[in-house]
Amino acid sequence: MRSGLMMVPLALFAFGCDDRPTSGPVPVHPVSGFVTYKNKPLSGALVAFHASGGSNAPKTGEAPSITTAPNPTGMTDQDGKFKLHSFVGDDGAPIGDYTITVSLARTSETRDVMVKATTTALVVSIPAKYADPAQSSLTATVKEGPNEIPTIELR
């Protein structure tokens, strides 16, 4: 009976000793950067990295890779800073070359039902080409280790 109990911790230890990251099936590396529009920080923008050369949709039975991982995404804060995530938290993105898209909600309205008030935030509009991977000229390469992407300047 004791030998059976000893096997359980060993089996659990063996499952935790592979090369895969704890965040997902593809190794990822931290990625962060800033987005500006007309030389000012752009807050509330969705930044997405699209693997260059194809779709990220996995095929049945295909081993995970940069082309089958989800598109790494992140939201910019009030200073225009973003951190990418692919699986869990701000885990980053797989190594590879990417086309970057940046999109922004066209309207922002907050309603407070208790006081029956509506607040509309200042709305910024950026060119649509930045939201389309086929039209965006923004690119980046993710390498092993932490990655600080040069400031993404939208005009």
Shape: globular
Helix proportion: under 10%
Distance between the termini: 70 Å
Helices and strands, in order, run as HEEEEEEEEEEE
Write the CATH fold name. Answer: Immunoglobulin-like
CATH superfamily membership: Immunoglobulins
Number of helices: 1
Oligomer: single chain
Question: What is the top-level CATH class?
Answer: Mainly Beta
Roughly what fraction of the amino acids lie in strands? 25-35%
Overall radius of gyration: 20 Å
Q: Would you give an account of this structure?
A:
This protein is mainly β and 155 residues long. The protein has one domain: Immunoglobulin-like (Sandwich), CATH 2.60.40. Strands 1, 2, 5, 10 and 11 form a five-stranded mixed beta sheet that branches. A four-stranded antiparallel beta sheet has the order 4-3-6-9, with no helix packed on it. Strands 7-8 form a two-stranded antiparallel ribbon. It is globular, with a radius of gyration of 20 Å.
Blueprint of the fold:
Layout: H1 2-15, E1 31-37, E2 40-41, E3 45-51, E4 73-75, E5 81-83, E6 96-104, E7 109-112, E8 117-120, E9 139-142, E10 147-148, E11 152-154
Parallel strand pairs: 1-10, 1-11
Antiparallel strand pairs: 1-2, 1-5, 3-4, 3-6, 6-9, 7-8
Short account of what is shown:
With 155 residues, the chain is mainly β. The protein is built from 1 helix and 11 strands; from the N terminus they run H-E-E-E-E-E-E-E-E-E-E-E. The strands form 3 sheets. Strands 1, 2, 5, 10 and 11 form a 5-stranded mixed sheet that branches. Strands 4-3-6-9 form a 4-stranded antiparallel sheet, with no helix packed on it. A two-stranded antiparallel sheet has the order 7-8.
